[in-house]
Amino acid sequence: MSIEEKISKYKKTLDLFPNPQEKYQYLIEQAKKSEEFPVELRVDEFKVNGCQSQVWLVPEEKDDKLFFKSDSDALIAKGLVTLITSIYSNETAKDITNSKIDLMDEFELGVLLSPARRNGAFSMLKTIKEFASKLI
User: Fold this and answer.
1) What is the DSSP track for 66-86?
2) Which of 7, 31, 51, 76 is catalytic?
3) How many C-beta atoms lie closer than 10 Å to residue 33's C-beta?
4) Is 51 a catalytic residue?
5) Which long-range CB contacts under 8 A does 67-70 form with residues at least 24 apart?
6) Contact status, residue 89 vs residue 97, Cβ threshold 8 Å
């Protein structure tokens, strides 16, 4: 599934929820379903700067594709980073850097999230794109 297809799938799911509280609940559910994150990876090297809470993003390259492990100490941020990493995992660095879709607009995060959380989501996306650009 391409980045665009994954984004479309999540957008359709988020659009099912008529109000922000239900969308928050969806993000919390994503956080609870996320993979176990190794404690030893909770180091400054993998910490995302610009997030209100602590967020860690760990890139791994396998077979010319990038995969991301992620975690946060806050449920909403963990749900966001889980959703974002699921979109960009199993994609090539070139596809990630070439993707110009604005998740803030697509998922209406500007409406849903507080300014601090919007900055955090932007920082998560920026970090993923920076990891990818280093591999091209």
Assistant:
1) EEEEEEESSHHHHHHHHHHHH
2) 51
3) 9
4) yes
5) 68/128, 68/131, 69/35, 69/37, 69/38, 69/41, 70/34, 70/37
6) no
CB distance 84 to 102 below 8 Å? no
Q: Where are the domains of the chain?
A: 3-134
Q: How far is CA 88 from CA 15, 19, 32, 36, 117, in A?
A: 20, 26, 19, 18, 20
The yes/no answer on whether domain 3-134 falls in CATH 3.90.1010.10 is yes
Tell me the pTM.
0.91
Along the 136 residues of the chain, how does pLDDT read in single tens digits?
999 999 999 999 999 988 888 988 999 999 999 989 999 999 999 999 988 899 999 999 999 999 999 999 999 999 999 999 999 999 999 999 999 888 878 887 767 788 888 888 899 999 999 999 998 8
